[in-house]
Amino acid sequence: MKELFTADADNERLDMFLTRMKPEMSRSHIQKLLADGLGQVNGKNKKGNYKLRQNDAVEIEIPEAEPIEILPENIPLDILYEDEDIIVINKARGMVVHPAAGVYTGTLVNALMYHCKDLSGINGEIRPGIVHRLDKDTSGVMVAAKNDRAHLSLAKQIQEKTAHRKYIAICCGNIKEEGGVIHGAIGRHPTDRKRMAIVPDGKPATTHFKVLERFGEYTLVQCQLETGRTHQIRVHMTHIGHPLVGDPKYGVNRHGKARGNLGIEGQALHSTSLDLVHPVTGEAMSFSSPVPEDMEKIIVKLRQKLQR
Fold first, then answer.
1. Are 246 and 267 in contact (CB under 8 A)?
2. DSSP for 178-213, written as a single string
3. What's the whole-number mean pLDDT along residues 94-123?
């Protein structure tokens, strides 16, 4: 499929312009298409670093996506609860929730497809059963739906904020307040499409946080979400100057390394509890998961250091 655009300014890089025109595509994907000769300016093939002039005719050809077959895989799951309508699991850090570009195996969806006979189909073939998600390097409690009735009910509870999710995070810096509320609309970062940011045209997002323990250079907090935007806690805590320990995307220093890397792979963030109403029986249910071993080790070391 070919798409046509008209450059609206001088000296903008071709790849940056197309990323702006196609916000659903990453800059690296755009650059690959251009490198493969699928982009033209005024009828001539150009690379990503080509500088446009106003009113240049820009054409990009986007190949049709090849169908993807998602297969069941015998991957162990830490199941907290299961019945014929829902399954609640304690997701491990490092596990991707659902297949996406370049990742089609080893995901939670692959594991659920093996373990469960049926999953809801509302989110399509790539995300069966997935009502909400956790980032790859965020561990903890999440629920999946085994049928469409359960899916619709759970999605409504999340949307209407009657389902409650709490997280534990280790943040960089000393948070002086006992707690607070962070408001900030979240959308794609204007220049780095792989990151999220607080932007004027983003989706409304609200995070409540409460300080649980202070360690001088670090703070242990509990976060509760009113909304469930992509990377919400990571973006909001970074916004107030306290990025999560080990966060490779939002907590990097000027050398490109994660701030406060205390030996954890990815951000120190864990989904500790989920409260919901069973989509069929109407029973109020509460599920919890203890802080994982990698975060617990950090907390113990920080306590010991503080006592010296």
1. yes
2. SEEEEE--EEE-SS-TTSEEE-TTSB--EEEEEEEE
3. 88
The whole-angstrom separation of Cα 44 and Cα 138 is 45
Note the pLDDT tens digit of each residue in 239-254: 999 999 999 899 877 6
Token code pair at residue 84 = 């014929």
* DSSP class per residue in 10-62: SS-BHHHHHHHH-TTS-HHHHHHHHHTT-EEETTEE--TTPBP-TT-EEEEE-
Q: Tell me, what DSSP letter sits at residue 260?
A: T
CA 30 to CA 35: how far, in whole Å? 9
The mean per-residue pLDDT over the stretch 70-94 comes to 95
Q: Is 78 a catalytic residue?
A: no
Q: What's the one-letter identity of residue 126?
A: I
Q: How far apart are CA 80 and CA 107, in angstroms?
A: 18
**Beta strands 44-45 and 79-82, pairing class:** unpaired
For residues 218 and 227, the answer to whether their CB atoms sit within 8 Å is no
Long-range own/partner contacts, residues 264-267 (CB < 8 A, 24 or more apart): 264/294, 264/295, 264/298, 265/93, 265/94, 265/137, 265/294, 266/93, 266/94, 266/135, 266/136, 266/137, 266/138, 267/135, 267/137, 267/138, 267/169, 267/234
Q: In this predicted model, what pLDDT tens digit does every residue of 260-291 receive, in sequence order?
A: 778 898 999 999 999 999 999 999 999 999 99
The H or E element containing residue 296 is helix 293-307
DSSP 83: -
Rounded distance between C-alpha atoms, residue 126 and residue 209, angstroms: 33
Contacts of 119 (CB under 8 A, 6+ apart): 112, 113, 128, 129, 144, 145, 146
**52/60 Cα distance (integer angstroms):** 14
Domains plus CATH for the chain?
A: 2-61 (3.10.290.10), 67-159 (3.30.2350.10), 161-308 (3.30.2350.10)
Q: Which two tokens stand for residue 46?
A: 């150009």
Q: Which is the catalytic residue, given 15, 56, 85, 135?
A: 135
Query: Which one-letter DSSP state was computed for residue 291?
Result: P
